[in-house]
Each structure stands twice: as C-alpha cells, then as structure tokens.
Amino acid sequence: MIRKVLAVRFVAVAVAAVVWAGTAAARTPVSAARGRALFTGREPLAGRVRDHRSDLPAAVVVCRGCHGASVVAPGAAQALAPAPAIDRALLLEARSRRGGPPSSYDLPAFCRLLRTGADPAYVLVAREMPVFDVDDARCESLWRFVTAEGRAR
Ligand code: HEC
Known about the structure:
Layout: H1 2-26, H2 32-40, E1 47-48, H3 63-67, H4 88-92, E2 95-96, E3 102-103, H5 107-116, E4 131-132, H6 136-146
Antiparallel strand pairs: 1-4, 2-3
Bound molecules: heme C (HEC).
Heme C binds next to helix 3 and helix 5.
C-alpha cells in the first residue's frame, strides 16, 4: 500500500517535472538585447497596416526604419506623419500626444499600442505606424530596449 502511494507520488512528481521543463523551454527570453534585435530588424516581426489583413513585408515594419535618428536618405519617401525618435523620455514623460490629455507609457500601454494602435490615452496613432503580432516576451524585450537609460540609437 505504502509502495503504491509512493509510486503514485513519484509518477506525479515526474510528470510535473516534465511539464515544468517543457514550459521553461518554450518560454522565450526577455532581454534588452532581444529588444534591440527586434527594433533593428535582426529578429523579424509580423506587422500590417491597422485594419488590413495581410502583413507588410518584414523589412517595411522594422521599427528603426521609421524611428531611427538618421535613417531617412535624401530623396527617400517621407512618412506622412513624422515618426518620433522612440526613447525613454518620449515614453515615460507625461505629455499630450495627438491632442489627447497628458499620458505616459508603461509596459501594458506600450504593448497595447503595438498591437492595436491605441496610445495610453486611447487615441489612435496615425496609420503609418503599423500594428504588430508581438507576444509578451517580444513586447517586454522591446520595452526594455527602448526605455534603457542612455540607449545608443
Ligand atoms: C512605417 C513606419 C513605422 C514603423 C515601421 C514603426 N513605426 Fe512607430 N510610429 C510611426 C509613426 C508615423 C508614428 C506617429 C504616429 C502619430 O503620432 O499618430 C509612430 C508612433 C509610435 C509610438 C508612439 C509614440 C507616442 O508618443 O505616443 C511608439 C511607441 C512607436 N511608434 C513604436 C514603434 C515600435 C516599437 C516599432 C517597431 C516594432 C515601430 N514603432 C514601427 C511609424 C512607424
């Protein structure tokens, strides 16, 4: 009887260990380094024009392509709405954005913007800013990168 109980316990522990190892392996890493890879396009992201179904080419939705400091080559097509340089100050300081009340970003607000185009005051940003399929790990990695102190662009 005791043996049976122990055997059942052992199986339960073994199953739990396998499940735990599986989820740990499936969990994608969160880091500013990964955020940089996502921001610069080294790790591709799927994105599209808000309310459109098909994805834009991966190269078109690279954050740095629009938000980088000195990326607009002379003669290159300019975005209709200017894309601001994304940094800690822009995101964390309370400011009026697109005519809305003063607001600032935190991680959930940042992820909502990327997924839906709604800013922290629920004002929709210009459609030039794509919407993205970002899971939590990618979003948090991006957040860590763009809010890093003294980030070199
Ligand atoms: C095709 C160009 C384009 C790409 C690619 C792009 N953005 Fe934008 N983004 C914009 C434009 C334009 C705006 C300003 C929209 C407005 O003010 O209505 C914007 C706005 C934003 C804002 C809001 C800033 C604020 O003050 O509210 C954030 C944050 C942002 N983008 C982050 C990103 C991130 C992160 C990526 C990559 C995952 C990215 N963007 C990719 C064009 C782009």
